[in-house]
Amino acid sequence: MKMKLNLFSFLFTFTILSSHVLSISDLILTKVDRRIDLSTQIVRTTTTLKVENAGSDIVSEILLSFPENHAIHLAYLSATLNEGRGKAKPSSGVSLPYDEVVSPKDFPNSLKVYSVTLPKGLGKGDSLTLDVLAVFTHILQPFPEKITQADIQLLLFQESAHYLTPYPVKVQSLTVKLPDARIESYSKLENTKLQGSELKYGPYQNIPPFAYLPMVIHFENNQPFAVAKELVREIEISHWGNVQITEHYNLVHGGAESKGEFSRLDYQARPYVRGASAFRRLVAKLPPRAHSVYYRDEIGNISTSNLWGDSKKTQLEIEPRYPIFGGWKIAFTIGYGLPLQDFLFGIDGKRFLNISFGSPINELVIDTLIVKVVLPEGSKDISPSVPFPVKQRHETKFSHLDIAGRPVVVLEKNNAVPEHNEHFQVYYKFNRLSMLREPLMLIFGFFFLFVASIVYMHADLSISKTSASYLAKIQWEEVQATIHQVHTIISRCLTTHDKLEASLRDLSRTGDIQACKATRKSVDSSLKELTKELKSPVTFLQSSPQATQILPKVEEVIAKERDLQERLMAKHSTVVDCYEKKLGGREIENRVASHQQKITALRQEIDDLMDLIDEI
Amino acid sequence: MAVTTSTPTSPPSMAQDLLNSLPKTLKLKTKQQELLIRVTTLGLIYILAFITRLFSVLRYESMIHEFDPYFNYRTTLYLTEHGFSEFWNWFDSDSWYPLGRIIGGTLYPGLMLTAAALYKILHFLRFAVHIREVCVLTAPFFASNTAIVAYFFGKEVWDSGAGIVAAALIAICPGYISRSVAGSYDNEGVAIFALLLTFYLFVKAVNTGSLSWSLASAFGYFYMVSAWGGYVFIINLVPLYVLVLLVTGRYSLRLYVAYNCMYVLGMLLAMQIRFVGFQHVQSGEHMAAMGVFFLLQVFFFLDWVKHLLGDVKLFQAFLRITVTGAVSVGAIALGVGTASGYISPWTGRFYSLLDPTYAKDHIPIIASVSEHQPTAWSSFMFDFHILLFLFPAGLYFCFKRLSDATIFIVMYGLTSMYFAGVMVRLILVATPAVCLISAIAVSATVKNLTRVVRAKVQTLQSGSGKGTSASKGSSKGVIDNSQPFQKNGAVVLLLGAFYLLSRYAIHCTWVTSEAYSSPSIVLAARGAHGQRVIFDDYREAYFWLRQNTAPDAKVMSWWDYGYQITAMGNRTVIVDNNTWNNTHIATVGRAMSSYEDEAYDIMRSLDVDYVLVVFGGVTGYSSDDINKFLWMVRIGGGVFPVIKEPDYLVNGEYRVDKGAAPKMLNCLMYKLSYYRFGELTTEYGKPPGYDRARGVEIGNKDIKLEYLEEAFTTQNWIVRIYKVKPPKNRW
Predict the structure, then answer these.
(1) Contact indicator for A72, A152 with CB cutoff of 8 Å
(2) How far apart are CA B176 and CA B142, in angstroms?
(3) Are B104 and B88 in contact (CB under 8 A)?
């Protein structure tokens, strides 16, 4: 694949090369305005070129050249047509396609050449204006290379005062914007002016092609030189409504290295003097409605961060565990969730994620940026689309409740700058029903757990059906069942006793002796039946060896119950007798008293025994 | 007539039938209802035990606490990343430089294996959790399991009511929570579970005489041995218990089966742990178990002979001969073993347990640890609260209903209470026993009281029923007169019990949230306006070490911070919390207490690149290195007599201000702690160099370092790191 691509570009360059030899001399740059922004660690060069075709052939490509030592640090290049309506912003307009080409033979060595393809050819005598933005990283050299805590950070910047181009230039000027700080020295060439923090070179007129006029600026810059050696951004899509972003940073202070002691005392007393080159906080601009933001590292949460937001953005200010001096490193992770509907869209049966590529942290240089897009399990036909060239590969990630793993698109880009924070897309197909798989898995998991426990409770899992302990267990269960039976029968007896008592109360209220006698009869018969019923369980208990411990209690209960029964009968007959003799209430009370006392005591004892038996 | 009578009577009788049948149907279900309530309660206790330990996660974060847990976490991480055999054969060159440490042979692997197994199971079930979360939640998970074991234990010893109360008490008992909050990833977290499980299974085995239960208890013992050095308590308590049963004439075949199986199998299994090895047959601490084992055989043999002989006189003679023979053989074996060195004498740690003053005089390294100090009364109160009063009451109930099981729990309670008094951290071992015995007291009391209350209700019902039928019976009135007083008393007592128990619950929650949930790595304080201020200096320093020093840099610090530096800073340390080599620690102590130039030679010989000290003078953090310094002097002086404790004291007083001893003012530890501190104003209205931890102005404000330079100091100065300069060129 890569081979093919190379071959293709090789062929491509050949075709343009043949035409270039002619066109180079034909184009003239009538006016060149260059602005170099040195206020941060990222050097941005904005060049406005007024191009005129002096030749007769139609020209469709314009060549841009950079010295090799700069070109290797070139992070971003864009060329846009300026339609000439006053001062159009460089970002407006469509950026033109460009390609790196092998420098033609008659070019000086150590030049990197890019060719910009124009949307339509430039005819004879026509002119156009081109805005070129080139972004460089790592071209500001700290000098001295090692400083102490108290020193300020000084940087060296080397450029050509003349615009390096294969075309002749009629008028050109260069403006260098420096940070608001000391300027140690700068090359004083003709027409050099220093206005505030802006350094102006030019205008220069009628400069031949490939002119190079070296100039050097030595200046102070204490802006944070945060360089991410590696940044891994993981974007995980959940169709349940969330896009989870996790960013693992591996930062280093890319400025002058610190040497000697670090004194906390000095740093605390005057942090902007004794520690001017260090940075202590970073600001990340997160998308609006970001939620569940966290900031931690390998050994735990970091509590020094602030978060505020409005409808347009969410701003996260993080403070590393310690101030970062030159050469010091730090690693941390920030993560946040985003609402799905802001970033996931669907077109003709496909879904696509549309999200920004780079890091949300301001002015961060990223040496290696790895973006991983984790799609839901079961996604198919995955195709990413990124506006600039990146390395691609596929991985699989296992997260909660995954069986086959989630497909992961890995995009890798070297030397990324904030200009790369463009949106990119990942297209894929996903069946909506697959969303239900994981909840169903959980439901079935629990379901089987319960089924298994039910089966376990009801199944007989003993290995030997003839072992002594197994038989004993079975017997014991039988004994328990029998005791339960006895218990039920006796409690039924007790209810029957209650009936008898109730009939006595009715008698005292109504004086209806006949009804009372009738109840007595029915109670008698039912008690007899119950006594009969009791026989077989009791004989079983007597025969069973397992029941020897409980047997006396059971027999005691039965005996007491019988006693109680007799007492009750006696009481009943006494009361009925008295009523028949029409004796007074007090007389009855006296006659019954001895019975009554016994009955209460017996009832109490039986209740206690019943409780005891029940507990077995 | 029948019609007229039946119409008024049938509705009440039907209603009565219904009323009668209602309790009947309910009664049919009482067992199930009771089971349902019991299971639900246990489920709630299980959850409660877990969530009450999550305060630390809510207050701080899901992180590993304290010191030792960091080592456990590091090894667990290694285990999950490299597999078991790598872990078992791991030679760790990151600690004890230049000696290194054989990790597999010097640790109890139970905790790490448990956490790794949980991690594997969760991943098998497709829960992609991080190993850190598993480690953080291991202790609470096992605390829940302990509560369940306590239930079964209580049920075995007393009844299921006591079991439930025991489970509830232990679920929230501060004595246990102190070592099992989320993040406290230490051996004790699983060991208490293993301890209680072993005891429960053993008691069950003794009660049933079943081989399967004693087998289970042997495996429980194996797990305990793999998890914690506290297994020595089991291997001494169980034989003591057996001995007590023998002496009190409670010897039975059940006991014989239970102990023999448990001892022999448990011993063989325990030998599989490399750190324990052959100690069961070679160390003096394990000899009691072996002695009781042989004694039991003799006892069994005598029993058998007695059974065979039947002649009392003959048996008496035989008994005399056998006992004398057995005792003398045992004594000779022990004597020869000890003399020949085959049986090692008791270790210092064991002595220090039996004699609280031993460590202070002989092993400063044990005495220097705060959790090895004798327990103050207040901490008993703090950790046990009402259990402290319920414990004797429970003992009373146990003695009232003496059985094999209650004898065990009484012995466990009494011995562990003694050890808890000797060492603060052994409160942990006593907690389950205290909870169980208190649970017996609570359960028995409440049961008795409710019986009284319920009995009253029943008689009242029957009494009122009769009151309608007849005029007020005098006899009934007499019974009722004696009862209201008793009943009201019971109700009052019940309310009192519930009040006490609710106070206990409130106390436990408060203690857990306020005292035992701090990770000690992150310090929290209240700011001037009442807001929460977090001091995260430890991690700041460790992370600085991790990121900004050479990967093979060696860091010297006092041993307390060794585990944390290796785990969080990922750098090699000279000494750490595994205090296996006293000389090495003494060397570090000597370096810290020497003058800078002398210390430089020691540090050069140990290849030290960085020195880390902990300093609380700015924040008022009192457990810093200056306050620990005397222990460094003592431990250093114990091996190197050049270091003399009196040199650092003035009239026996330890000071850091102007009146301090000259050696103190110029030793390395003082210099590193107070370097440039004299220029800092810490508190308004106090002179610069005012040490807030000790409340004095320091004595030496002009500290110059010749061989070291400040490499890093954290935001609140709690951790200070110095770089050892390379030697100067000679020309």
Answers:
(1) no
(2) 11
(3) yes
Is pTM, for the whole model, over 0.90? no
In this structure, what DSSP letter does residue B727 have? P
Q: What CA–CA distance (Å, rounded) separates A332 from A249?
A: 5
| B536·A302 Cβ contact <8 A | yes
SS3 at position A382: strand
Q: Are strands A391-397 and A406-416 parallel, antiparallel or unpaired?
A: antiparallel
B7 touches chain A (CB under 8 A): no
Q: Which tokens is A386 given?
A: 């990124």
pLDDT tens digits along A262-290: 989 989 888 888 888 888 889 999 998 99
SS3 content of chain B, % helix, strand, coil (to 5): 70, 5, 25
**Chain B partners of A300 at a C-beta cutoff of 8 Å?**
61, 63, 521-522, 539
Contacts 24+ apart (CB under 8 A), B241-247: B241/B407, B241/B408, B241/B411, B242/B292, B242/B296, B243/B292, B243/B295, B244/B407, B244/B411, B245/B404, B245/B407, B246/B295, B246/B296, B246/B299
In this complex, the residue of A303, A329, A400 whose CB is nearest that of residue B548 is A329
Put simply, the chain B residues between 211 and 270 with a CB less than 8 A from any chain A CB are: none
Is residue B457 less than 8 Å (CB to CB) from chain A? no
Are the beta carbons of B460 and B443 closer than 8 angstroms? Answer: no
Secondary structure element (H or E) that encloses residue A291, with its range:
strand A291-297
pLDDT in tens, A182-216: 888 888 888 888 888 888 987 888 888 888 888 99
Cα–Cα dist A93/A47, whole Å: 15
Q: Would you call A176 exposed, middle or buried from its count of C-beta atoms within 10 A (0-12, 13-18, 19+)?
A: buried
- Cβ neighbours of residue B308 closer than 8 Å, sequence gap 6 or more: none
Look up residue A219 and give its two tokens: 């200046």
Restricting to B residues 108-167, those with a Cβ less than 8 Å away from any Cβ of A are 125-128
C-alpha pair distances (Å), A257 with each of A141, A146, A328, B98, B602: 11, 5, 8, 31, 31
Query: How far apart are alpha carbons A523 and A502 in whole angstroms?
Result: 12
Contact: A321, B544; criterion CB under 8 Å: yes
Q: CB under 8 Å to B4, separation ≥6 — which residues?
A: none
pLDDT in tens, A122-172: 888 888 888 999 999 999 999 888 998 888 889 999 988 888 888 889 999
Chain A, chain B: beta-carbon pairs less than 8 Å apart: 120
User: Shortest Cα distance from A238 to chain B (angstroms)?
Assistant: 15
Q: For residue A329, name the pLDDT band (cuts at 50, 70, 90).
A: very high
Q: At how many degrees (to 10) do helices B187-208 and B231-247 cross?
A: 20
pLDDT band, residue B29 (cuts 50/70/90) = low
Residues A394-416, mean pLDDT to the nearest whole number? 92
